[in-house]
Specification:
By secondary structure, the protein is of the alpha/beta class. Helices cover about 40% and strands about 15% of the residues. Strands 3-2-1-4-5-6-7 form a seven-stranded parallel beta sheet, sandwiched between helices. Helix 1 packs parallel to helix 2. The structure holds nicotinamide-adenine-dinucleotide.
């Protein structure tokens, strides 16, 4: 296998599960040191042990809520101290949050989704950018969703879709701002991927029961029988993180097996 990331360090948020986990494994296989940022500590520490068996010392599990400024600043500092630099940031942690008709959502419902998905993305860039600017090179990838601007069939997901659209605008602004420092920023928009994301839906049976039924079966993708796999997305993220994509910045890449065309 090629080792595109030999000697490079990556921060991956939401590394304990799904897309983040698959990406951490792929990057480590290709030689990267990986900092695994997640709330769920037992999952990331299990992954840390697995990756350190692959290559001693390549993984560091960091127990951190990406929406907390203090915790994020400290987590980034620890990572750079441990690995001696920073080349790749995968701002990927996200939640479905509360779903339901807009007038039924509380301000807390709204703010929780914004704080994890949008503020968490902002902080993932805020504290890492200085390190990449200093080395005059870097690649940042943000996980949005086709729910952000291509397909709005998931009724009741207004906070989620708003954050996913916001991430696209934020990524493009960041790409412009950082181009002169040779730091690239791209945003990916997956369709349905088989992960644990449904666990992050705030349970609310009352609201869920009055959501307008989906117009399309969720996760139907012309290219596949069901949803995509986390590994499919990991390969795209690795391409965007590597020098193979050295002239790509400010791009939004849809990875959905044509789901958004239905
Ligand atoms: P997942 O639930 O399997 O993994 C997400 C991980 O993020 C979990 O380990 C969770 O603990 C972590 N996380 C959540 N909030 C956090 C916080 N505040 N701080 C730190 N870690 C936190 O889900 P996934 O599908 O792999 O989700 C990754 C990203 O992909 C999300 O941004 C999601 O919106 C996006 N996405 C997913 C799909 C899909 O169908 N699965 C489709 C489009 C976009």
């Amino acid at each position: 296998t090629t080792r595109r990331f030999a000697g490079r360090t990556a921060i991956i948020t939401g590394a304990g599960s799904g897309i983040g986990r698959a990406t951490a494994i792929q990057m480590a296989r290709e030689g990267a040191n990986v900092a695994l940022f997640d709330l769920v500590n037992d999952r990331t520490s299990a992954l840390e042990r697995k990756l350190n068996r692959l290559r001693e010392g390549c993984a560091l599990a960091v127990d951190v809520d990406t929406s907390s400024p203090e915790r994020m600043e400290e987590a980034v500092r620890r990572t750079v101290e441990r690995f001696g630099g920073l080349d790749i940031v995968f701002a990927n942690a996200g939640i479905n949050g509360s779903i339901g008709p807009i007038e039924e959502l509380s301000i807390e419902d709204w703010q929780r989704t914004l704080s994890v998905n949008l503020t968490g993305t902002f902080l993932s860039l805020k504290y890492t950018i200085p390190h990449m600017k200093k080395q005059g090179k870097g690649s940042i990838i943000i996980t949005s969703s086709i729910n952000g601007n291509r397909r709005f069939a998931s009724f009741g997901f207004s906070p989620y879709s708003t954050t996913k659209a916001g991430q696209v605008a934020f990524a493009k602004m960041a790409a412009l701002e950082l181009a002169k420092f040779k730091v690239r920023v791209n945003v990916i928009s997956p369709g349905a991927i088989a992960t644990n994301i449904d666990e992050s839906t705030e349970p609310n049976e009352e609201l869920e029961s009055i959501i307008i039924p989906m117009e399309f079966p969720e996760g139907q993708q012309p290219l596949a029988d069901g949803p995509g796999k986390p590994e499919d997305v990991a390969r795209l993220v690795c391409f965007l993180a590597s020098d193979d994509s050295s002239h790509i910045t400010g791009a939004q890449i849809v990875i959905d097996g044509a789901e958004s065309l239905l």
